[in-house]
Every structure is written in structure tokens, then in C-alpha cells.
Protein 1
Amino acid sequence: MLFFFFKQKTAYEMLRSLVGSEMCIRDRLTSLQNLYLNLNSVSGTIPSEFSRLTALENLIAGSNRFSGSLPSALGGMHALQHLDLGSNRFTGSSSDWFGTNWSQLRLFHISHNPDLDWDLSLLENWEHLENGLLEDCSITGTIPSRLFVNKIHLKMMALVNSKPSVRPPILTDAPM
């Protein structure tokens, strides 16, 4: 099942049109795998009801006007493989819960959210990460060396214009 939106809506209006009611998201959309909201000028916060979309593999919501903190609802999406929240207006900081259940994550894109603070240590356990886009964000921590030593899947990590400067990993056990 695939959903696309082409009309400007607030996040609340979008959720209401997507699910119609709380009953619908609980009973009918829990198996939703792909949700593409990008380039729709959706505004507001990500609704907490998204926590019920536990089978979601692709959440592509970049280039909108989402704002506020990243909700804990995203943390329960165990099947998530592609997460694009880039070019929005998110604020706040990552926390210990954020993304700890995303063992299948391949694409992580939060670029161009300059008021979003991100701790790079959260990338440590994403075994299948192929592309990390964290440009123009406020980043803390050190790039986990494990990303470069044990992560044969990693193809690209973009940290351009990130504030403050990111400390590179010390690769003492890197293969030659």
C-alpha cells in the first residue's frame, strides 16, 4: 500500500485524511510499509499516532515544513529502512531512545534542520546503514569508528556544514 499527498496540509489534516480516525490507523493501516510525504509543504509536528505504523519501512517526509521535536513515535518503527526528514524545521535534540530499534535502517537523512541537535553516537548500532545525510545540522559526538571498520554497507556519510565541527574517528583497527 502506497500513499502520496499533493495538497498542502497541516500534519494533523494529513493524518486525518490518511487514517480518518484512530480506529482506522489501529485496524487498517498497521501494515502500511511506504509513506511518501515529501515536497508537500506539510506543516506542524509529526503526529504521535505514527507510532502505530509499526510495519513502516519507508518514511519519506523531506522538504516540508514539519517543526518541533522528533517524536518518540518514530522510535517504535522497527521495520524502518529509509527515513528522510531532511529540509524541515525540526528542533530539539536526539535522545537515547531515538533510533535504537532501527536495526534495518539503510538511509538516514536529516540534513538542513539547523536547529536539530544530533548525537553521532546513535549511529553506532545501525548495522545496515548505507547513506547518512546530516548536512547543515548541529552535531555532537564523534563519528563511531565501527561505521568504517565493521560496516561494509556504508557508502556515504555527508556531514558538510555541520556545527560544531565533527571529530573524526580514530581508526586503529581499520583494514588495510
Protein 2
Amino acid sequence: MHSSNKYVFDRNLRLPDGGFLEDCHPYPMPTRMYEEDPDALFESGMPENLMWKDHLALTIGHDTQGLTFHRHNAAWNTVVFGAKRWILYDAERIANITRLKTMTRDIRNPIQLDTANWIRKLYNKDDRKHEIRNYGHDCVQRSGEMMYVPRGWAHMVLNIGDTVAVVSERGLDGVN
């Protein structure tokens, strides 16, 4: 039986032809710019690794795959198939890097645990569960639901079964 630990992120998701997304306007940037004038986007001089940062991305992963605690700009995630467990922790509460490390890692063990093992081994230890449930969120996102992650919030994601999602970092105009 083949088993792969690959978690696919494809940021070069092409907009489908045939008007499938007509009701989704306005598109996030640079998707909107790409639709209006693809040449201008590529001629803008923006490095390609940044160009697609705000673009739609497709993620595909199997059961118990996910991402450990991380932070970035505001983002949204829509599950197309499957489900995801999210654990999010307020950016204001973790402004102190020591507090962040204490909450997200086993400081006695230098090896960072994957998401599933963090939940199994660390979630119920110390004050983590209390902190997250009082100053963050622990929830399940199901197919057809959208999750918005505010800028700077530490979060981890765990797939529940095989999961497919569409995501974009800062795809919302005016959101920091």
C-alpha cells in the first residue's frame, strides 16, 4: 500500500473558463489583476514567489496531515472536501515570543511535534487547553465552510480524513 506524507500546496491555481466564478467577484489580488491583464502582472517586476502569495491556492492532504503552529497575514480557507480541525491562538496574547514557544512547543524537547502528535501529547498539558479555549479557538471546519484567520494569529490545522481546500493569504481588500 502506498503512503505519502506529501501535503500539496499549488499557488498557481488557474481560473476556470466558462464563467464558473462569475458570482465570486471581486477576486483577490493578484487574481483580479491577472484576469484583467496577465501581461501587466508578469511585467510588474514583482518576484514570482510574492506574486502568487495572495493568489488562490489549492491544498490536498490525507487524514492527520496538517501544518504545525505558524503565523502569517490575514487569510481565508474554504474546505471543498473533507474537514479540518483548527486550533487558533490570539495574536495579542502571544506577542511575547517566549509565551508563543511555551504554548506551541514542548520546550523540554527540541524536536517540534507534527500537528497530530501535538494534539495527542501537548494539548492537555500545562495550561494550553485553558489558554486556547479562553483566548483562542478550537473548532472543526467542514466541507463548504470558510475559515478566516486574522493577521498574526498562531494556528495549526489538522485534516480529518482526506481533505481538499482553496486558500488565499490576504485575499481580502483592506484587511491587514
